[in-house]
Amino acid sequence: MIYITSNKAGERVGEYLIQRGDLTRTWAGFLLKDSKRNGIAFTTSLLKKNIFNKTKLEDALSDLANTALADVLSWTNGTFEFSDKLPQQALDGPIRISEVQAMQQLLQGNDSQSAVDKTGELLRNIAQKISSDNFSLPLLPNIMLKLEACWEDNTVDGQILKIVRSDQVLSAFLLRVVNAAVDSKKHASTIKQALELYSVDHLIGVVHAQLACAQPPKHKDTVSQMSQHALRCACLAEQIAAQLGEDMEMAFICGLFHNIGKVLLLQLLVDENMPDEQLPQLVTKYSQNTGALLSRRWNLGPVVHDCIKFYAQPQLAREHQNMVEIIYLSHMLLLKPNEAENAVQNCTHVREELLNIADLNSNLALIDEVVAAIY
Amino acid sequence: MQKLNGTLDVTSLAEILRLCSVQQKTGALNLVRAGIKKRSIFIMAC
User: pTM for this one?
Assistant: First the structure.
């Protein structure tokens, strides 16, 4: 990739250099007029007037381009159009930008400190792995054994897909394959939608392929706990959605995926030989950005992305707020059942009058039975 | 990629970049959202 240009406020070259303190507003205005008058690029004008040397300008433009790319990587709506016509000046330009660097920015979020300490290098390695698909989400041994038993018993395909629907790793992998842009007319955010697009045989084949290359988790017990919480959250989110008249299937999948960043990050950090005592803090700090990045990398759908990214702070969501709040409520009811009222008060989009917390609490035992049957 | 345009709710940029990389595409990708134009990502065997 060579370069990206943007008309977004703060991402125009002049504005960006002013923000960085590299250029005054007066100089920027003067140079803009100068470049227009002489029919030369703004950046050329910067070099000609000796405001920048070439290396410093290249570094600044590279940072700007990576920031612009990091922003657009997280877009969940909008349009794209590819053209094979390539402007010559693009080929001649000095800037090269990196998807990895942009992904690293997304992982860091607002944590500027990590850019300068050793965490920066760690996040760069993780971004590199996600960018190049050089990672695997771990599959729990008991899930693997259940599926193998299904195959040996010639169990009906519905039972296999029921197990897939209950496990975040298998669901994510299935949707990742279904949503590969080989046929960009089709998109499925849920297993149910995938079944509407493809035959059961097709989907079972995808699951088979996943099992062929499955890896066990490095921290089996922790991953098992995370997976069980994910399924509990999915089941409860489904029930909250039912009370609110929202999409129950979407709520289920968003609940199932809400903590997938934790599972992925834990696996990646162990691969990086990170000491055990540092794992909890790093996983807590970066798991939501990691999960959100994974959801974009695997094309899991905008609602899933927003729920992963904002379920702990639903007030930050700008779209799909109802679903984000459903996942927040589900997560909080499981985590702090005695603070349910506070959690509801933090929600500003769901219709509070439709919620019946007592009913949800009374169903928790049933949900535990469902989870116990899978794990 | 059969079609060279679409929407980002169906196909994420990360997925578009992956496909461009696999297909060794050279060209310009224009992205638009709510008046914001990331006018071109120039890709050459990205």
Answer: 0.85
